[in-house]
UniProtKB/TrEMBL annotation:
This is Aminopyrimidine aminohydrolase. Its EC number is 3.5.99.2. InterPro entries: Haem_Oase-like_multi-hlx, Thiaminase-2/PQQC, Thiaminase_II, Thiamine_Salvage_TenA. Belongs to the TenA family. Homotetramer. NCBIfam families: salvage_TenA. Catalyzes an amino-pyrimidine hydrolysis reaction at the C5' of the pyrimidine moiety of thiamine compounds, a reaction that is part of a thiamine salvage pathway. The lineage of its organism: Bacteria, Bacillati, Bacillota, Bacilli, Bacillales. Residues 11-215 form the Thiaminase-2/PQQC domain. Gene3D superfamilies: Heme oxygenase-like. The keyword Cell membrane does not apply. It comes from Halobacillus salinarum. Keywords: Hydrolase, Thiamine biosynthesis.
Length: 225
């Protein structure tokens, strides 16, 4: 299957997610709150653009079935995944307005600009390739962290792990994989290679996003005003 090929191609990068200190410290429950807060602020902005990408998928869908998958993902991201961020923001003493108006980091811009550009320009298959690494890798990480002793019961980070390891989120990830397989099946090798390149690029950007969060990377000090 096409997604097996994608997984093989990115397995080294994906293994590195699990070794990343940000991910490991969420699992241990020891991650500094300020790093997590920075991550959630950037991730909320990320999810706003991610929703737009799903909307583009719906607009470009050739069949109602595909339109439904993209719109279901849009709906659950807006109402379930982003609700997790709103709840964490409340615990961290942030208002919704603050959450929506954070300054986008350079890594965030690089990531969402890339997904949006591929999705505006390309077909429904390009949209699927642009979002697949996101949905799938968070489920991969969530399921992995859920195996760590006590991680899902952690009073602060447990909710985050439970969201991405949940049956509902696993269902969304497998729907996306299935859709990618269906859409790639009929494509010539040249187009498959293009879809693979999008997936690899997004997988690398996912790694950069963990790095950005752990180091709370914004713009260089001298140009950040
Ligand atoms: C950066 C990033 N990738 C993927 C997901 C999963 O939806 C997320 N919340 N944030």
């Amino acid at each position: 299957m096409f997604t097996d090929r994608l997984f093989e191609k990115t397995s080294t990068i994906w293994e590195k997610y699990l070794e990343h200190p940000f991910v490991k410290e969420i699992g241990k429950g020891s991650l500094d709150l300020d790093k997590f807060q920075f991550f959630m602020e950037q991730d909320y902005l990320y999810l706003i653009d991610y929703c737009k990408v799903f909307a583009l998928g719906s607009a470009k869908a050739s069949r109602l079935e595909v339109m439904t998958i993209f719109s279901d993902l849009l709906h659950s991201t807006l109402n379930e995944e982003m609700e997790l961020h709103r709840q964490y923001a409340e615990k961290l003493g942030m208002t919704r307005t603050q959450l929506e108006n954070s300054t986008p980091s350079s890594t965030l811009s690089a990531y969402t600009s890339y997904m949006l550009q591929k999705s505006y320009q390309g077909s429904e298959a390009d949209v699927a390739a642009s979002v697949l690494a996101c949905t799938w890798s968070y489920n991969f990480i969530g399921l992995n962290l859920a195996q760590t002793e006590g991680a899902t019961e952690h009073p602060f980070y447990g909710d985050w792990i439970n969201m991405y390891a949940s049956d509902e989120f696993s269902q969304l990830a497998s729907q996306m994989k299935q859709l990618m397989n269906e859409l790639a099946e009929e494509k010539p090798e040249r187009e498959k290679a293009e879809l693979e390149a999008i997936f690899v690029h997004c997988s690398k950007l996912e790694y950069l996003f963990w790095d950005m969060a752990y180091d709370k990377q914004m713009w260089p000090q001298e140009i950040s005003s």
